Structures are given as C-alpha cells and as structure tokens.
Amino acid sequence: MEKLSSSAKLFTFLQVLYDLTDEEHPKTREELEEALLPFGITLNRKTFYNYIETLQSVGIDIHRKKTDHFRYYVASRHFDFAESKLLIDAVQSSNFINKEKSEALIEKISKLNSLYQAANLKRKLYMSERSKSLTKNIYQNVDVIFEAIVKNKKISFRYFDFYLDVNHQKKKRFRKDGKQYVASPYSLVWAQDNYYVVSYFPEHEGLSNFRIDRMDHIVILDEKRVNVDVASGVANFNISRYSQNIFSMFSGKTQTIVLKCDNDLLSAAIDRFGFHASMKRVSDDCFVVEAAVQVSPTFYAWLFQFHEKVQLLSPVDAVNGYKEYLDKVSQMYR
Q1: pTM of the predicted model, to two decimals?
Q2: Which residues of 296-317 are buried (b: 16+ CB within 10 A; e: fewer)?
Q3: Of 20, 85, 126, 229, which residue is the least packed, with the fewest Cβ within 10 Å?
C-alpha cells in the first residue's frame, strides 16, 4: 500500500470519526486506532491527541466523554439526524424524482451522518412507486433550465403526456405532434409534490407552468428571454406571490376572489392563501377571506372538497364558472 502523507492521514482520521462515531456511539482511542489499521495508518498516543486538537482548532466539534474510558465522537455535523430525516422524507415523497434517483440521493444524504445513524435513516424507508416520475433525466432538465435562467436565455423543448396503447401499455405522446416549444423561463417552483418551470409561452395567455419531468430534449437558445414584467403584465412581478396564488400549477385568469367560510376552516384557509391573506370575522360561525388566485378547474376542485362549508361570493364570472363546473359534475351522475 502506498504510503500516505500526513495530510491524507489526518483526513482519513476525520473520515473515520465521521463514519464511526456519534453521541450514542463514542469510541475509545484504541478503537479509533484499530479502525485506521485497514488504511495502513498506525498512530501513537501523541499523534492521536495532536490530530484531535488540530481538528478541533479548525472547527470540527469533537467531544470527549468519560465512561469506563475516555471516548470521542463528532458532536455536530452540517446536517444533524433530524435535518437529514426531513431531507430524506422530502425526497421520498417527491413525485418528480424517479425511484432510482431517489434511492441514490437518499444514500448520499445518509452519508452526512454516522454509519449507525445512516442505518436508522434507511431502516424504515418506504417509497411508493405509485406516483414516482418515470423521467430519468430530471437532474439534467433542472440544470439546463437553471442555466438558461441565469443566462437570461430562452429554451426549446418537447412536452409530453401519457396514453394507453392498444395493448394497454403506458406510452409517451408528445404534444404539438412533437414540435418544439420555445419559452422564456423565469423560475423553478416546487408545488403539489411536482417541479415546474414558470415560463412565458407565446401561444398561451399570460404565464405558463410546465412540469419539468414532462419536458424532453431541452436546449438553451441564443435568444434573450422576454422580460417577466412584460410577459406577466405585472410591474415588479413577484414569483413568490404568484406561486402562492396558483392552484396545482394549472394556469388560469388571476382574479381577486371572496370566500365565506365556516370558522373551523381557518387553518385550511391559512394553509392555502398564507398567513397574511385578508381574513375577517363575520360572526361566531364564519369569516370571509379575500385573495388573488388563478381561477381554474383546479381551484374549483379545491372549493368542492369543503361542500357547504365554503361559499364563493365574488367575482360574478368566477361564481358562474363554479356553477357550470358543479353542473357538469352533477350531469355525470343523473
């Protein structure tokens, strides 16, 4: 085995500490020295303590615990166990990352912790394939779109849906007969467990939201993007406010709606419209909320789940649209 430099030995010692120790699994000096033997590293007592002091001096949080012997462990990391669990849960539940990519990403996140903690993170891992994307190039799509946004450039791409063929197999079908879409990308938004790019596509009115896992063959063009204020028709366009106002990223006409809600739906209203949305108490039984939303069938579906507990009061065309929506659903069961 090739002889390691002093720097390589110190780095290997740090890696062993990261992998084999945590607060519940501290190691003695002897145990750590034994763990270094497979790497061709032998330490004497003085070098061991020098390594500990050197790592502590550059901010590595190494603690010493007195039990039957002095034991050492890494006390804090860039991501602690709970934070890593949150990241893994997010990856596990996200629809836009396919199963293979999810497993690889979860493996990387797990390595931010000790081997013992990593095993616990993955022990009860459950990943449903029901809603996982089949797109394998999601990372590449995100990289290309983000680069286009940074460079202020348009993109071209193909956009697809799925259909069942005569053998009942699920197949891709490209929209517009496979012709390229050309759009100005402005922001990447994660909503309703899917990843979207908010864009201006001239064949649609206003802004459009394309699912990144349904995009294929994305190319950055030389042409500059259309300014977002021009595309949206809104001066000083706010992407955060836009994301909050849309429902499931299906575009529709943005309108200020007024809802009358039972008081027990206050939490649901805050979740949907945000804590700072205008909400006023009407009585002991109900309140009204006023918010700008993109009125679409998805918005109507959100209303429908609350039945008689929510009444859409205005504007008139949104109320009429909701009545038509309800009539169409009702007609199916007559």
Answers
A1: 0.63
A2: bbbbbebbeeeeeebbbeeeee
A3: 126
